[in-house]
From TrEMBL:
Subcellular locations according to the entry: Secreted, Extracellular space, Apoplast
GO molecular function, one term: manganese ion binding
GO terms under cellular component: apoplast; plasmodesma
Organism annotation: Zizania palustris
Name this protein carries in UniProt: Cupin type-1 domain-containing protein
Function: May play a role in plant defense. Probably has no oxalate oxidase activity even if the active site is conserved.
Binding sites annotated in the UniProt record for Mn(2+): H122, H124, E129, H168
PANTHER family the record matches: GERMIN-LIKE PROTEIN SUBFAMILY 3 MEMBER 3
Keywords, in A-Z order: Apoplast, Disulfide bond, Manganese, Metal-binding, Secreted, Signal
Signal peptide: 1-37
Length: 233
């Protein structure tokens, strides 16, 4: 009698509980995993990059002999050399320059712009970027996957954000040099500069891909290629 009452009382609750658990599982599956927001989480205090190791891991192998200089870099103090095609220079302070950054999920760079200089449209596949303007003024922007341009003119003291993976640029339309410091949530954000990626890849992107994608002729492709230097690394 008692068991029957209990069964009768609890049976309408069972489907409810099952639905709640199912909903919870669905919500948890839909939530982005925290580890996809940037570089993977670290499993130890430090893992200073052994940049010469042949061991292939996600990041760099840890080296045994660590010194304070593995966490130190002086390269952002001076302006980069902007005497190049675009009139801009990026100086990285990433894991390749600061081995102590390995597994820590952050890095910085300094970007200098001559008057008229452009940091051409590019993306960072592994990081969101925040720029802080040290001097001068810049017209900056990024383009969403919905093809909306989000753009602004920023000056010394301003901060602007370029969301991870989105194409963005900075142009110095002033008549004095400009400079920014950038922060990234990756030890090595990676850069794909659109023009260089498409027109200076090695081996070359098939010309038929470029002529059809940009609706131009082979002459125009050759002209662009002749003016874009191959990517350094
Ligand atoms: C800057 O780069 C240009 C072109 O590569 C070079 O001719 C010039 O000597 C460099 N200037 C400095 C100060 O290094």
């Amino acid at each position: 009698m008692q068991a029957r009452t209990m069964a009768r009382a609890s049976s309408p609750l069972l489907p409810c509980a099952a639905v709640a658990v199912l909903l919870l599982v669905v919500v948890l599956l839909l939530l982005p995993s925290p580890s996809t927001a940037g570089d993977p989480d670290l499993l130890q205090d430090i893992c200073v990059a052994d940049l010469t190791s042949a061991v292939k891991v996600n990041g760099f192998a840890c080296k045994a002999a660590v010194t304070e200089d593995d966490f130190y870099f002086r390269g952002l103090g001076a302006a980069g050399n902007t005497s190049n095609t675009y009139g801009s220079a990026v100086t990285g302070a990433n894991v390749e320059k600061v081995p102590g950054l390995n597994t820590l999920g952050v890095s910085m760079s300094r970007i200098d712009y001559a008057p008229g200089g452009l940091n051409p449209p590019h993306t960072h596949p592994r990081a969101t970027e925040m720029v802080f303007v040290l001097q001068g003024a810049l017209d900056v922007g990024f383009i969403t996957t919905g093809n909306r341009l989000v753009a602004k003119t920023i000056t010394a003291g301003d901060v602007f954000v370029f969301p991870r993976g989105l194409v963005h640029f900075q142009k110095n339309n002033g008549d004095v040099p400009a400079a920014v410091v950038s922060a990234f949530n990756s030890q090595l954000p990676g850069t794909q500069s659109l023009a260089t990626t498409l027109f200076a890849a090695s081996p070359e992107v098939p010309i038929g891909v470029l002529t059809k994608a940009f609706q131009i002729g082979t002459k125009e492709v050759d002209k662009i290629k002749s003016r874009i230097a191959p990517k350094k690394s």
